[in-house]
Amino acid sequence: MKLRILLVLAITSIFSSTLFAQSQADDPVSLVESITGKIFADVTENLDEYTANPELLDELVRNDLMPLLDINYAARLILGRAGRGLEKEKIKEFADCMSNLLVTRYSKGLLYFSSNIKLNVLPQRGDLNEKLTRVRTRVTLPEGGEAPVDYAFHKTSDGWKAFDVVIEGISYVTTYRNQIMPEVQANGIDSVIERLNTGQMQLAD
Amino acid sequence: MKKTHSIIGVILLSLLLAGCAGTQSRNTDPENDPWEGYNRKVFAFNTAMDKVVRPIAVGYDKIMPDPVQRGVGNFFRNLDAPVTYANQVLQGKFRQSIDTIGRFLVNSTIGLLGFFDVATKMGIPYYNEDLGQTLATWGYEDSRYLMIPFLGPSTFRDGTGRAVDSFLNPVTRRIYNDGRWGLYIVRGIDTRARYLDQDAELNEAYDPYVLMRDVWIQNRQYQIYDGDPPMMDYDLYLDDDLDAEEPVTTGGQ
Q: In sequence order, which residues have a C-beta less than 8 Å from that of residue A52 and are 6 or more positions away?
């Protein structure tokens, strides 16, 4: 009798732990772990090729990292009231521009860290609520020490998506917003998009 | 003690000048930066000064091998240990304050006056506290942004804190009294050299003044909360009118 109960308990616990694991798989922490893990492994393996052809790395980042991000939401946060009255296509164009910028920067970062790249994803903490959470990570720097890199996630109809990167407390969204909002208000969105696109070319050399 | 602290003089003067800041041209962040008019003038002054300082920092960065430069950084960081210690005690962080004493003793001796950060290798963690952070944890949370000539971004609270800290730090005081203030020129150059990587970013910004302010204020907040500030309220950033249209939640592209 006792044995049967134990057996039932054991089976249900195995069952529930697989269920648990499945629901865990798309939580923000696991998303960051699996996606960055995949990208870093790829970079470590093919470092020479990516150093020679950075556009291949851009491609990798675009395909693997971008689905994790909600760039349109980030773009709307950045534009704020400067996005008022803009056509949806314009906002989309601006969002594309931001995502290109992000891809280029992220790839450059990967090459800078090269094969020494180590990322430590800290466990989820209490501040997880139903819509918004933060994933905290530590990147080991080549010259020693660690850089704290946090990702802000929110829940969409499409699952958890990241929309902000915060490095040493400095939020990309906030920092870009305070630069771009006044620029859009002064020069218009088209001029800003053009500048960001040329700026991105400058970054590439 | 006569001309003990030129740093204090500079800070006090700038606090005084900010107090009588005149009309303001722009007000991009009235909440955090009501002295923007004055601050922009100091920013312009510091930028002009940088035309002289930067080439020296570039030269220093080129000549100094990385390990030596790291050593210099370690040396100066070690001199601030008494400030961190005192402020850890003031904030009730007693266990951490013991680490700070331990670090200071180990690095000042085995680490050859602080050049080698032996303590970190021994697993003693590094903390950074100052009076500005202490005042913030005591409840003086919001303070006006203040650009200080030569020293750069700060707030009224942090500038005052910095003056008091450097006045009371027995180690740096001793160095001043010995007339070795030349060390502070080296420190200035070394500090400047650490920011060379960020110059391009700053120069390309639409508004470099605002970029520097944003980065500084956010990073300072991060220090005050020891690396764990509360998550900001992103909803404030959304435009209600734009939002009303329809929520766009596509996942990247």
A: none
Q: What is the mean pLDDT of residues A83-87?
A: 80
Q: Residue B95 to residues B82, B91, B102, B107: CA-CA distances in angstroms?
A: 15, 11, 11, 19
| Average per-residue pLDDT for chain B | 84
Taking Cα atoms as reference points, which of B152, B170, B123 lies closest to residue B39? B152
d(CA B162, CA B182): 19
Q: Give the three-state DSSP class for A27.
A: coil
Amino acid letter, A124: Q
Once rounded to an integer, what is the mean pLDDT over residues A59-79?
87
CA distances from residue A72 to A126, A150, B4, B243 in whole angstroms, order as listed: 27, 19, 55, 12
Residue A113 clears pLDDT 80, i.e. is over it: no
Tokens of B126: 């590094």
A70 touches chain B (CB under 8 A): yes
- Percent of chain A past pLDDT 90, that is, above it, reads 0
Which residue type, as a one-letter code, is found at position A3? L
Q: Is the ipTM of this complex over 0.85?
A: no
A116 confidence band (pLDDT: 50, 70, 90):
low
Q: What share of chain B is helix, strand, coil (3-state, %, to 5)?
A: 65, 5, 30
Residue in chain B closest to A129 (alpha carbons) equals: B231
- How do residues B174-215 score in pLDDT, each as one tens digit? 877 777 778 888 888 999 998 898 888 888 888 899 999 999
Q: Mean per-residue pLDDT for A181-185? A: 86
* SS3 label, residue A184: helix
User: Under DSSP, is residue B133 helix (H, G, I), strand (E, B) or coil?
Assistant: helix
Tokens 């089976």 sit on residue: A11
Strand B145-148 and strand B152-155: the pairing is: antiparallel
The answer, yes or no, to whether residue B93 has pLDDT greater than 80, is yes
Q: Which residues lie closer than 8 Å to A160 by C-beta, 6 or more apart?
A: A26, A27, A28, A31, A133, A153, A154
Q: Which residues of B touch A (CB under 8 A)?
A: 28-29, 66, 70, 204-207, 210-211, 214-215, 218-223, 227, 229, 231-232, 234, 237-239, 241-243, 245, 248-253
**pLDDT, position A10:** 54
**B249 → closest Cβ in A152, A157, A169:** A157
Bridge partners, residue B146, by sequence: B154
Under 8 Å between Cβ of A27 and A68: no
CB contact under 8 A, A99 and B237: no
Task: Report the interhelical angle of B94-109 vs B81-90 (nearest 10°).
Answer: 170
According to DSSP, the β-strands at A159-167 and A170-171 are: antiparallel
- Quote the Cα angle for B165-B125-B111, to 5°: 80
